[in-house]
TrEMBL record:
<keyword id="KW-0963">Cytoplasm</keyword>
<dbReference type="InterPro" id="IPR022313">
    <property type="entry name" value="Phe/His_NH3-lyase_AS"/>
</dbReference>
<feature type="cross-link" description="5-imidazolinone (Ala-Gly)">
    <location>
        <begin position="143"/>
        <end position="145"/>
    </location>
</feature>
<comment type="pathway">
    <text>Amino-acid degradation; L-histidine degradation into L-glutamate; N-formimidoyl-L-glutamate from L-histidine: step 1/3.</text>
</comment>
<dbReference type="InterPro" id="IPR008948">
    <property type="entry name" value="L-Aspartase-like"/>
</dbReference>
<keyword id="KW-0369">Histidine metabolism</keyword>
<protein>
    <recommendedName>
        <fullName>Histidine ammonia-lyase</fullName>
        <ecNumber>4.3.1.3</ecNumber>
    </recommendedName>
</protein>
<dbReference type="InterPro" id="IPR001106">
    <property type="entry name" value="Aromatic_Lyase"/>
</dbReference>
<dbReference type="GO" id="GO:0019556">
    <property type="term" value="P:L-histidine catabolic process to glutamate and formamide"/>
</dbReference>
<feature type="modified residue" description="2,3-didehydroalanine (Ser)">
    <location>
        <position position="144"/>
    </location>
</feature>
<comment type="similarity">
    <text>Belongs to the PAL/histidase family.</text>
</comment>
<dbReference type="GO" id="GO:0005737">
    <property type="term" value="C:cytoplasm"/>
</dbReference>
<dbReference type="GO" id="GO:0004397">
    <property type="term" value="F:histidine ammonia-lyase activity"/>
</dbReference>
<dbReference type="GO" id="GO:0019557">
    <property type="term" value="P:L-histidine catabolic process to glutamate and formate"/>
</dbReference>
<keyword id="KW-0456">Lyase</keyword>
<dbReference type="InterPro" id="IPR005921">
    <property type="entry name" value="HutH"/>
</dbReference>
<dbReference type="Pfam" id="PF00221">
    <property type="entry name" value="Lyase_aromatic"/>
</dbReference>
Length: 509
């Protein structure tokens, strides 16, 4: 039976969002209802009083100075939704759409959007029934919010377009009937409240964070395995080194490496060797991975704030009847933080690829060339390292900041945009690439540790070894290797190594 999370508007945690991403249903806290209904009543009162307010009885964007008569307000909202559903490209995955819907519910239920409670409940009902609006991935610049993707979400409530149920695409009208919902007729401002907001870019960013946490934890394990495989020193992980610099991420990462290596017979076998220093990709892991962890935590904080934000426009403040236009729909915080996360994740992959390269070279690793016996007849991991290099290099382009770009839209009314949706969406590609690099490193390091038998690695790292060996046996001679690389990559993305990381290291766990 699926878990149900009660959403108290404005108090959604990262862990709750992760669980929604993993399939949890949602329930709205009834305590939020009075504020939502009061907000909708404020909109109704404005119309009754004959006032002209942007978003309620005017056009939109450059057409904001056009007043709309009362008998056209229903058409205004429906036309707004239909005209903005201009997304293009592949559809977003259902689990991402589920997060978008939950974030939209959370934001609207805070009571500043002038939308009826029943409309918000309809979104939650569709989500809980597993009926997901078909949302094309491309077409948003992240201001005025994620207009096109949220319009596609909203079209489903109007019985327009398609939804996906159990992987099958069906007409939205049929999906509404399956959920026991009537086709919605939007009231004043409701279409705009549904379309405005940063929920798509924020959902994509959060999913990028969740995948990034799985990749990061796996990279820590892989790095520790490589230290043991290459008979590296654990002295660089000494807490005294970290404390005199003072970065929390560095201290936490170094502590994790020490915990991974504790009790390794391989480590004990070379405590008094004549090697003075290891290469940077081994020795500087606390500094590099620690910096990545600090920035991962920073982005988690930003995304967590945005997940609870009211980001449509205009905003309704019912206590004094004010409806105020502003710019909360501008997704710059999401865009810049997604750029930071992209850089951090790319560095995780970059240093991992360098450790793989180290293991290819007998002069550095002390292991057989390309980690295979009878080299020459067998190529071993030679081209697996090439694959890792290709993925790491691709990420250099993908990590280029998206937030520094801006193309004016809406006849220059919207003259600076964030590009947050792309900034967040490309995190999936970066994570996929890094997971591939980590998979190659894990296979290489496991191979290296095998060469040290009968000495064993630590108890923790042996658990990682067992997981790797469950899908990829020791590489004794050349074989068709692709399925094993994909299998380990899948384990990385799904968080199979997350349980080995110290508790509390990742912000959403």
């Amino acid at each position: 039976m699926s878990e149900t999370i009660t959403i108290t508007p404005g108090q959604l945690t990262l862990n709750q969002v992760r669980r929604i991403y993993d399939g949890a249903k949602i329930k709205l806290d009834e305590a939020a209802r009075p504020a939502v209904e009061q907000s909708a009543q404020t909109v109704a009162d404005i119309i009754s009083a004959g006032k002209t307010v942007y978003g309620i009885n005017t056009g939109f964007g450059r057409l904001a100075k056009t007043t709309i008569p009362n008998d056209k307000l229903v058409d205004l909202q429906k036309n707004l939704v239909m005209s903005h559903a201009t997304g293009i490209g592949a559809l977003l995955d259902d689990d991402i759409v589920r997060v978008i819907m939950a974030l939209k519910v959370n934001a609207l239920a805070r009571g500043h959007s002038g939308i009826r409670w029943s409309v918000i409940e309809s979104i939650a009902k569709l989500m809980n029934e597993g009926i997901y609006p078909c949302i094309p991935a491309k077409g948003s610049v992240g201001a005025s919010g994620d207009l096109a993707p949220l319009a596609h979400l909203s079209c489903a409530l109007l019985g327009i377009g398609n939804v996906r149920v159990g992987g099958k695409i069906i007409p939205a009208k049929q999906g509404l009937a399956m959920a026991g919902l009537d086709i919605l007729e939007l009231g004043p401002k409701e279409g705009l409240a549904l379309l405005n907001g940063t929920q798509t870019s924020t959902a994509l960013a959060l999913v990028g964070l969740f995948q990034g946490e799985n990749v990061f934890a796996s990279a820590l394990v892989a790095g520790a395995l490589t230290v043991d495989a290459a008979k590296g020193s654990d002295a660089p992980f000494d807490p005294r080194i970290q404390s005199v610099r003072g970065h929390q991420g560095q201290m936490d990462v170094a502590k994790a490496y020490l915990s991974f290596l504790q009790g390794s017979e391989i480590r004990d076998s070379h405590l008094n060797c004549d090697r003075v220093q290891d290469p940077y990709s081994l020795r500087c892991q606390p500094q590099v991975m620690g910096a990545c962890l600090d920035h991962l935590r920073f982005t988690a904080q930003t995304f967590g704030i945005e997940a609870n934000a009211v980001s449509d426009n205009p905003l309704v403040f019912s206590e004094n009847g004010d409806v105020i236009s502003g710019g909360n729909f501008h997704a710059e915080p999401v865009a810049m933080s997604a750029d930071v996360l992209a850089i951090a994740l790319s560095e995780v992959g970059a240093i991992s690829e360098r450790r793989i390269a180290l293991m290819m070279d007998p002069a550095q690793s002390g292991l057989p060339a390309f980690l295979v016996e009878d080299g020459g007849v067998n190529s071993g991991f030679m081209i697996a390292q090439v694959t890792a290099a290709a993925l790491a290099s691709e990420n250099k382009t993908l990590a280029h900041p998206a937030s520094i770009d801006s193309l004016p839209t809406s006849a220059n009314q919207e003259d600076h945009v964030s590009m947050a949706t792309f900034a967040a969406r490309r995190l999936a590609d970066i994570n996929e690439n890094v997971a591939g690099v980590i998979a190659v490193e894990m296979l290489c390091a496991a191979q290296g540790i095998d060469f040290h038998a009968p000495m064993r690695t630590s108890e923790k790292l042996q658990k990682a070894m067992d997981a790797i060996r469950s899908v990829a046996p020791h590489y004794d001679k050349d074989r068709y290797f692709h399925p094993e690389m994909e299998a380990v990559k899948d384990m990385v993305l799904k968080g199979a190594f997350q349980g080995l990381a110290p508790e509390g290291l990742m912000p959403s766990y």
